[in-house]
Amino acid sequence: GEVCTMINKKYSEFLPSMQSAEDLVAQVEGLANNIDLLKAGIENEVQRDLNVAVAEFTELKQQLERDTLVLSVLKKLQEFDTAIKECNSALLEKQYVTAAQQLEKARSSLRSLESRRGFELKILKALGTELTVQTQNIIYHLGEEWQKLIVWKLPPSKGSSSLEAVVLSELHLHTVPPQDEDTAVPPVAAVLQALAVLGELHSKLKDFGQLLLQYILKPLISHPSLQPVPEEQPDVFILRFRSQEFALDESSPMEVFDKIKLVFEVLHKHLLNVPLEQAGEGRKEGRVTLAELLGELIWEELSDCLIHNCLVNSIPTNSSKLEQYKEVIESTEEFEKALKKMQFLKEDTTALLKYACNVDSHFANKKCQDVIMAARNLMTSEIHNTVKITPDSSISLPELPDPGSGDHLKMHSPSNLLHNGTVNLGSESRLSPFTLSLPTCRISSSVQQLVELAYHTLLEATASTDLCCVQLFDCVRNIFQLFYEVVPTYHRENLQKLPQLAAIHHNNCMYIAHHLLTLGHQFRYRGTGVLSNGAATFVDLVPGFRRLGMECFLAQMRVQKGEILERLSSARNFSNMDDEENYCAANKAIKQVLHQLRRLGMVWQDVLPVNVYCKAMGALLNTALAEIVTRIAALEDISAEDADRLYSLCRIMVEEGPQVFTPLLEEDKNKKYQEEVPVYVHKWMTFKELMIILQANLQEIVDQWADGKGPLAEEFSAAEVKSLIRALFQNTERRAAALAKIK
After folding, report:
1. Residue 109's domain spans which residues?
2. Which terminus of the chain is more exposed, N or C, with fewer CB under 10 A?
3. Domain boundary among 100, 116, 140
4. pLDDT band at 407 (very low <50, low <70, confident <90, very high)
């Protein structure tokens, strides 16, 4: 029974829980059904509504953005409008700075309107036009004010900065505010500040700076007689000029600096000392004075002008005056300081001072420039103005100062330093006075001056600082290198055409070469290290000059030889002289050659050194004789009459040939050289032997040959003699016998 009751108990407990489980299942099923219905509902209706809502939201958002944009554009348009109105009313009250600032505000409003993409208003074009009109309007007003403040009274001949024009120029500055009225006239600062705000100040100042340079500053630098005359009146400041009667040709830098400083001081007082707000031009401090702005615009041109028209001229051309130049350096420094104090110059500007302090180098540059200019003028002057030089002519130099008593080598006078190159070796072993001497000849006076210029420049070099010394030494080398390049090209045509000039040029080159040998050496015992270490030499230039002279003269010789051969070519080969016409042609050719030689003998007379003269004339006469010998020796048939006529032609050459040797002006002294002709004319004896053959019989020819040991054998080969015998004599046994002996 107990078990029964337990089961009953369990069962009675189980029944309700099962019941509730069944209820639960029924509930869940109902819920699931509901969910299905709901899901179907959502899928069908809510989803659709949601899509609509999102679309609506996006549209609203876009509309909001559009409205905001329109609002900000309207705001900018309003700003633009306000700014333009403010600008107008400020302009009416002559409040230029406010007007300019408002205009810039309007400009930035317009800029931000224009920068919006996808928003092109037609109105923008109209606004842009209005802004431009307004800008031009205010600039016009400011321009009017500027012209009232700064008045130039210039002479009618505008553009001229001659002394007469400048004396008539005036600058009026109406920048002094009148005492009684408050500020009916806007103060200068307002006008300038407004121009600065509008970015127009730069161009106004640039024009002002140019006028200042042209009519005031540059004339003060270039006209020493010009004086600035400032004049202050209650309501205007005037700057005038007057010209002093008795002024120097050049004013010292000190005077020029004072005048320029005066101009800047009055400008500073009445105009330039205006501080400006310079926004947005990359300036950190934001404030800048007008003086600074003007300085930036004109200082470069002004300092250039001061250097080239004032400081350059003040640089001494003599080393002895370099000491006094300190004064110039000091005043240059003072000048720069004063301009910096007025803020016209930036602190780090030192162009002028740098230039002045570099006086040593400038002195050398200037000296070198002068020397090179002088040298170039000498080189391009006429070659044919000559001077005679003799072995004992020495170059004219000032007394050379004693190189110092401590020196073991004493030079007493220029004569033993420069006595035409005779070098005093300082010991007992003297060179012969003519070891290094030049033969008597003529050279261009310009070349003598050129060599003197070189000596004087080197002399100056020994007295200068090292830097200067090196520059001047190089300059002297440059003179000679310049000669080498300029003269042959500049005088090319004349040197080719005129034998006399070729001869003078030859002498010029030899003269220069001669002095170059000793030029550096003579300055070894003078002055400081640079020239005295022996490196300062010109010897390396000597061969070039000798070659230059030789080549030019040899070219002339070739021309003359060509002419001689040309003339002899018309002598019909000297054949058939029994024909009158042929004889006349040959006679004429010989006369022409002698005439040519005589003319050369005259133009070279007293010009070439005697030995060169004799060699040259000898070579040319030799050309003529050699050609005649060759032509006659080549003839195949010479009749007795031919032989006589050839002989008489040859006699003309032998008699008149030596007379073309006239190296000296004194006629009687030329005899000696005319007798020495065989020395200079290589073919002289050959020619004489040919004449003997033309007159000789067979036996005499054989005797002259003398088994190849006689005088004839000295001058002609066996073949040539045989050929002449065949031409002169008919074919006989005697001729055959004679021919047999020539071997």
Report:
1. 26-140
2. N
3. 140
4. very low
Judge contact between 661 and 617, C-beta under 8 A.
yes
Q: Are residues 191 and 338 in the same domain?
A: yes
According to DSSP, the β-strands at 275-277 and 237-243 are unpaired
CA distance 28 to 24: 6
* 401: its two tokens: 């100062």
Nearest to 578 by CA among 496, 528, 618, 637: 637
Give me the amino acid identity at 383: I
Note the Cα 558 to chain centre separation in Å. 39
Residue 222 near residue 259 (C-beta atoms within 8 A): no
Band the pLDDT of 560: cuts 50, 70, 90: very high
What is d(CA 233, CA 202) in angstroms, rounded to the nearest whole number? 29
Residues 75 and 98 in one domain: yes
Phi first, then psi: give them for residue 227, nearest 5 degrees: -125, 135
Distance in angstroms (rounded) separating the CA atoms of residues 57 and 602: 122
CB 320 within 8 A of CB 368: no
Q: Which of 574, 538, 512 is nearest to 724 (CA)?
A: 574
Looking at per-residue pLDDT, the higher value among 217 and 742 belongs to 742
Q: Kindly tell me if the per-residue pLDDT of 422 is higher than 60.
A: no
Q: Is the pLDDT of residue 424 over 70?
A: no
Query: How many domains are contained in the chain?
Result: 2
Q: Dmax over Cα atoms in the chain, in whole Å?
A: 203
What is d(CA 374, CA 449) in angstroms, rounded to the nearest whole number? 10
* Cα–Cα distance list, 635 to 575, 630, 671, 718, 720 (Å): 7, 9, 36, 16, 11
Which range of 146-155, 515-524, 609-618 scores highest in mean pLDDT? It is 609-618
Residues 626-657: b if buried by 16+ CB within 10 A, e if exposed = bbbbebbbebeebeeebbebbbebbeebeebb
Q: What is the mean pLDDT of the chain?
A: 81
